[in-house]
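A quick aside before the break. I want you to see a complete sequence-to-structure record at least once, exactly as it would be stored in a machine-readable document. Don't worry about memorizing anything.
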Amino acid sequence: MHLGLFLLGTGSHIAGWRYPGALATFESLPRIAEIAAAAERAKFDLLFMGDNLYGDPHAHPSYTSRLEPLTMLAALAVTTQRIGLGATASTTYGDPFTVARAFASLDHISNGRAGWNAVTTANAVSAGNFGRAHPDHGARYAIAEEFIEVVRGLWDCWDDAALVADRSTGVFIDPGKVRALDHDGPYFRVAGPLNISRAPQGQPVILQAGGSAPGQRLAARTADVVFSVVADLNDAQRQYADFKMLVASHGRNPADVALLPGVMPVVGRTDREAFDTLATLQGYVNSTNALAMLSERLGSDMREFPLDGPVPDIALPDTYHSFARVMLGKARREGMTLRDLYNLTAAARGHWVLCGSARTVADTLELWFTSGAADGFNIMPPYLPGGFDAFIDGVIPLLVERGLFRAEYSGTTLRDHLGLARPARAGKFAEKIRGPVP
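That is the input. The structure line, written in tokens, reads:
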């Protein structure tokens, strides 16, 4: 199975930073480097950093006060050797040339370990920081389709052998092996080429997390790794089968796209100890912050409804579509109150919470992996470093012992870890590549 570490410095639990001994900052590079080193010692495929583009004192601490992801990962590229390094960059509020250049740079700095999480940026609050209107859901995905196409085209403007640096002839770059892109589309006009040679991986890995129908189609067409939101085995199996069929419908090998559900494992020496840890964490929850996060996820002000009443019947929002669908579906199936739902949101922001002994957690991950529900998991420790150490020290050895996870890295790049071939230049984007640059 593939394992990613979803890195939030204060832990995935909204109050994880309050746990005794827990890290209470996401701005300390030395502490983050220690966590990255631990993930690499455990042979994780990648370390992944999500992002947002606005500050909100009532939001999750790691999204309110944090280092910029690409800057941090560039630093971690120097302190690590093998683990993949993935970061979020917005297709709505970024620009293709800058994103292509930044991730190509990270791939060079890390010797082939970069991954780009292409997101459309759901929350409209971000628009105020960029002086523009927030596009609706459909428009955001139309923009993303073209954005990703342009970025991948820019990554392919250089041949592998374009950088010659021949001292005897004085030729530094072979101009016949560097091509302009000359993209002119509905949303972007980009001449290219990039001013950086082809990345060590050929193209950095594409990560995505879209859960809506347009998001699933985009991921099926373009992604190498997809992060999913599921909390029920049967639902996960159904989503897995449907998504793999969608990948095949785009002419791709379903095995070339890894589907990784997010999971917050609370691991103890016994099941009872794990549940006591979760109870302690839940005891720190501030209802104001939890309700604010739930309101953001569901796109409605949940403070208007009684906490101990049923979860109200609201329409799916235009923002966090997959989170809302999973959370509302679970609430209706299980007859949750609004208080139950906000507790779940505080625990893992709508992701799956897996609580138990190391053996219980390993057994559950094995069941999901072997029964067609996942290709691996995006691990979201409730607090750091202790919550992650418990997973590494207790669960990883059991997975290795059962032949479900690697004991050592067999390659050096993120593509190697994922079992993906290095793409030849241009590929299906060849029709976008024009003549050589003069």
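Two observations worth writing down. Confidence is low (pLDDT under 50) at residues 427-434. The chain is about 40% helix and 15% strand. We'll return to this after the break.
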